[in-house]
Amino acid sequence: MADEVVVANVFKSDAIPEAERLDLGSLAAQIQGHGRRARIVPEVDGIVQLIAPEMRRGDVVAILSNGGFGGSMRSCRNVCERSPDLQPIRPEPEPKPNRTNVPFLQH
Known about the structure:
The chain is an alpha+beta fold. The protein contains three helices and two strands.
């Protein structure tokens, strides 16, 4: 379980019927009820601004979104790259196929 959850307001929530909207206050209260910290920020950009000064070596930051997330992934990576103590985890590149790693079928 996460030590902390930071949630931004839902983008274009006014397009969702009020009865179907995510209640961020209730969500935060439920998370806090499990002994974890929960914070709500008005805008997605505020997430990186909020957590960047608190990030330390060894922290794992997961940014989840159903869209582009307003460039927060890039902002978070930029913060990590500018700090000698913080380095983003880069996914390993896919190996280029060669004779030793190309899957094959055996008869």
